[in-house]
Design goal:
The chain is mostly beta strands. Helix content is 4%, strand content 32%. The longest helix has 5 residues, at 30-34.
Length: 142
């Protein structure tokens, strides 16, 4: 369980303080935990099962930070052949290789490959289809 103590509820106390006052907690702001740099953060919805072996499924929301420099093993968003794609960044002696379940892109393809940002978190919808109705039809939960 993630608890946030920074934004404790303020109370004016007159007389005897409640023994439960030590357990007051502020409301959890999930964006505060997932987004480090709001000006560099973008959201993508994964389409397809090309990253299934890396734990990313169709429909997942990818929280992506453009200010991070990719490292070996990082999940990245790349811009290749006019569209965005999600890949694992692998660094070897020949440079950067971007891999998914079906193929590999290399950095030597100049003008074709650009690492756009690093995925910092993945949000997955876990509601069963019977509950995906009305305002809950597009819920994404961690």
């Amino acid at each position: 369980m993630i608890r946030s103590f920074e934004n404790r509820a303020e109370q004016k106390i007159s007389g005897f303080q409640s023994p439960a006052a030590d357990y007051l907690e502020g409301r959890l702001d999930i964006a505060e935990k997932l987004v480090i740099d709001p000006h560099s953060t973008f959201y993508f919805r994964m389409q397809g099962m090309e990253m299934q072996s890396f734990g990313v499924l169709d429909g997942d929301i990818l929280i992506t930070d453009r200010s991070l420099k990719p490292a070996h093993g990082a999940l990245v968003i790349a811009f290749s052949s006019g569209c965005f794609t999600c890949r694992i960044c692998l660094m070897d002696k020949n440079g950067i290789v971007l891999k998914n379940d079906h193929n590999v892109l290399t950095e030597t393809e100049i003008g074709v490959l650009q690492i756009w940002g690093v995925v910092t978190a993945v949000c997955r919808n876990v509601l069963p289809n019977a509950l995906k109705i009305g305002r809950y039809s597009h819920v994404c939960a961690l």
